[in-house]
Amino acid sequence: MIEVRELTKTFDNIKAVDSVSTTISECQIFGLVGSNGAGKSTFLRLLSGVLKPDKGQILIDGEEVYENSSVKEEVCFLSDTAYFLPNATAKTMKNYYKMIYRKFNAEQFDKLAEKFHIEQERKISTFSKGMKKQVSMLLGVCSNTKYLLCDETFDGLDPVMRQAVKSLFASETLSREFTPIIASHNLRELEDICDAVGLLHKGGILFTRDLEDMKFHIHKVQCVIQNSVMEEKLLSELEVLQHEKRGSVLSFISRGTREEIMSRVEEKEPIFMESIPLSLEEIFISEMEVEGYDIKNFIL
Amino acid sequence: MTSRISFYKLLKEDIKKRVWMFLMFITLFVVIIPISTMIQYEGQLAYSTAKEIQIWFQHDIMGLGDVKMSPLIVMGAIISGITSFSHLHSKKQLDFYNSLPVRREKWFAVTYVSSLLQIMAPYVLGYILHMIMGAVNRIAVPEVFGSALLIIGANILFFLLIYAVTSIAIILTGKSITGLLGVCVLMFYGPTVIALKEYIMLQAYETYMTTGAMYGFMGNIYGKRAMTASPIMAYYVIADKYGQGDSITTSIIISVIAVLAASAAALILYKFRPAEGAGKAMAFKKSEPVIKFLAAVTAGLLFGVTVSSQNNTQGEMSTGWLFFISILAVIIVCAVIEFIYSMDVKMIFKKKISLGAALLLTAAICAVIRFDLTGYNSYLPKKEEIEAMSIDTYSLNGVSPYGGYWWDGERYKDVLAKRKVQDFDGIYEAAQDGIGRVGKHDSGDENFVTIACYLKNGKTVYRSYWVEEETLFDCIEGLFQMKEYRREVLGLDQMEEETFHTYSFKDILGKTTVVPVPIDRMKNIMDAYIAEMETQPLSVFTDGNVIGQLICSEKGDGDTYFPIYAEFTDMIRVLEEYIEVPGELKPEDIISMDIKDFRGEENENTYTDAQNIKVTEAEQMQEVLDGLRIGDDFIKSTTERGLHVEITTKYDTETYYIRKGMLPDFL
């Protein structure tokens, strides 16, 4: 488990990460969302022990990560622009990672490289941006570390590869103790893969939520209730985050399970009612508005 | 927590990563240099003796600071220092390396050992190859093998020192360009500051002890004290010392301490270096104002003092220019450095504290040196604080061929120490006279002296003064009563050690005659001369006439000229046992006598404008000869200015002067 307490990092009087406290549970895919400059990369560089916090603590499995090689053995950091040794091929990088990470699975790397059509003997400098990203991803996954920190992982990958990498993450999570933390400025990239998401804005984590939990406990409903008194009563009975009335159609987003919400609506004898699936983005916008943020301007 | 990753595997990877460096240096040390040595050796065979080749091989090829391998060692140390830590200037590489489960201490150790192996293993191999080559061709003397370990060890030591200093520069900075600048600064800032201090003292204080010459700033950079403040230059200073046969044990011990200190500093800096330093001019934010301050003050003083002392007169800098140029230089340097830091023109004057501090300190130093606020020029310890004093005047340098040490600035303090006397009243008076003349000497009837005060508290105070000639004469005359002082000043101990194989005598007529002295009596000649030098009063040397010169020859080492004064009667008697020694010039000996008169104001220093007076009458000639001063002026100026007497005999033409107050009527 990763515990972050009051983490602060300042660059030239600009607080890149400002008093962030959060917990990232094990064996889940954690998405870190935020616009450009929100502090995602800094946060990951802090988690990986590249940067030293100005204030606060990062505990990975109960131990500080900065300059702690035994903790770092369980953390692999893939920065947004991957670095490869001079004149390296995928094979030389594989061997290098094998030397660095005790549990590096070379066989898995070979298999995945074949699947991803990566020529191991070819110099990485001749690879395209997307291919370099794939090599970096495979090295990270095959390092077999407990935590994989990925900065803008899907940036530069084509849709097929993006899906393949997502599948890889999912299968790894199922097969071993694996906690990938994926930073992205794009919520849509993460919604079909992440178990939990944290939203970073201006250096601070606004909140962290379990996606399933969020999806299970928040719903959008459209209904037509003829009696306006009943309509008012319905809105007051539910924990409504947003509501809107267009003509006779009432739309609202409310907390609660689908069954709870729909039974309340049914009690008001609607002439029409339906539950509409919410995208991760809509859930976030709703949640954030409740928190008092207008995040439409900074989330895609 | 210790990393489980094998040190040797990391080492192997580091060598692989920088294998180009290894290949380059193995080619240079093991192929190129040995081949070039062989070619040079073959060339030497044609024009050098076997001994000369052995000396060449021992010193130039196998010696410490040799001409071929040592520059490569310096270059290798700098290159490996830069490549070991250049990843710190790249955010991408830093993210990679810092995220790996390897402690920084281990990375540091890996690069340290890897650099040493990649550069110094080829060097050692090359050195051994040279030894084999020397043995096979029989040009390696046994000393080559005997000193091999010491030379290899010393070279490894200096490699590590230069490597560590280079590493510090790279670790401290965040960009390649500032890293390279940093290397230059760390390699040469020490000598620059020492040379600058020396230069400022020379320019600012009239009484600052110099060795006679007003060295420029660059001249001081090459002073040995300044050079030892740079790892590269110190290497060559020690190599030079070793080459001259001096002991380098102390230097090696100091170097070992320096290596340990520099390596520890590099390791500590590396360990605490913030990763966010990549891409910035300086990696440590706190070092920025310090570097700016040091550079600005140094540059301010350097430019200020250099420009304001262009009149080249010690202690008389132009006040206005000194302050103006210093302050201007500080402002410009601060602005440039701030721009390098921020790359933003708007920021160049934003950091006012460091700029203000640099300006304040520079202005304060300028004020102190220009107006002598510390009383440097007027300082003379109280008599009761002084244990002993010493004086040297260049004015006595020519009295004896073995006197005078003005040519060896580095050892000047040792020279003064040898002339230390407890009875120093005369020297103290001379110093007081000199202090009274600070800023108003006219260099006419004065002599330049250097004085050392050895205090009871163990300190030594050195000063230079212009002292009135009579005061100095009295002082030196008193000191000449002390046998040891006189022997030291005139170099009589050295004279005793000399073994000449031929004596000649050039008499007052200019005729040179070999003194046919038997070998077993040769020493008597020199003993007689030394006896005269030991006993004659100072006035003989300052006022007497030189009636000839004893020319002593040593095989292969040229001739040494010993002046014989008319008052050296015992010496003359010894010479007269073998040759004729004329005691004076007579009109009949003279073929021509010309007097060059340039006493007029306009042509005082211009020989070409001199008026030529031909003296042909025997009576007039005798009048001139009666007032002739034959010999150089020491301490006192005894001759009339602006009159040269050119006398031609059948053997030679010589120029003499006319004594003060003895001008012939016709002049």
Could you explain the architecture of this structure?
The complex is a heterodimer of chains A (300) and B (667). Chain A is of the alpha/beta class. In chain A, 36% of the residues lie in helices and 29% in strands. Chain A folds into two domains: 2-212, 3-Layer(aba) Sandwich (Rossmann fold); 217-297, Alpha-Beta Plaits (2-Layer Sandwich), CATH 3.30.70.100. In chain A, the strands form three sheets. Chain A has a six-stranded mixed beta sheet with strand order 6-7-8-3-9-10, sandwiched between helices. The radius of gyration of chain A is 22 Å and the shape is elongated. The model of chain A has no long low-confidence stretch (mean pLDDT 87). Chain B is α+β, with helices and mostly antiparallel strands. A five-stranded antiparallel beta sheet of chain B has the order 9-8-11-12-10, with helices on one face. A four-stranded antiparallel beta sheet of chain B has the order 5-4-6-7, covered by helices on one side. A three-stranded antiparallel beta sheet of chain B has the order 1-2-3. The N and C termini of chain B lie far apart (99 Å). The A-B interface holds A 11, 45, 48-52, 63, 67-73, 75-77, 79, 81-83, 85-86, 96, 99-102 and B 1-6, 9-10, 13, 17, 90, 92-96, 98-104, 274-276.
Question: What is the fold's blueprint, element by element?
Answer:
The complex is a heterodimer of chains A (300) and B (667).
Chain A: E1 2-11, E2 14-24, E3 30-33, H1 40-47, E4 55-60, E5 63-64, H2 69-72, E6 75-78, H3 90-100, H4 106-115, H5 129-142, E7 147-151, H6 159-175, E8 179-184, H7 187-191, E9 196-201, E10 204-210, H8 211-216, E11 218-224, H9 228-237, E12 239-246, E13 249-255, H10 258-267, E14 272-276, H11 280-291
Parallel strand pairs in A: 3-8, 3-9, 6-7, 7-8
Antiparallel strand pairs in A: 1-2, 1-4, 4-5, 9-10, 11-13, 11-14, 12-13
Helix pairs in contact in A: 4-5
Chain B: H1 7-17, H2 19-47, H3 50-61, H4 69-85, H5 91-99, H6 104-136, H7 142-146, H8 148-172, H9 176-204, H10 217-221, H11 224-227, H12 231-243, H13 249-272, H14 287-308, H15 319-342, H16 352-370, E1 386-393, H17 412-418, H18 425-436, E2 446-455, E3 460-468, H19 469-480, H20 483-490, H21 492-497, E4 502-507, E5 512-514, H22 522-535, H23 538-543, E6 546-554, E7 558-565, H24 569-576, E8 590-597, E9 611-615, H25 618-626, E10 628-629, E11 643-649, E12 653-658
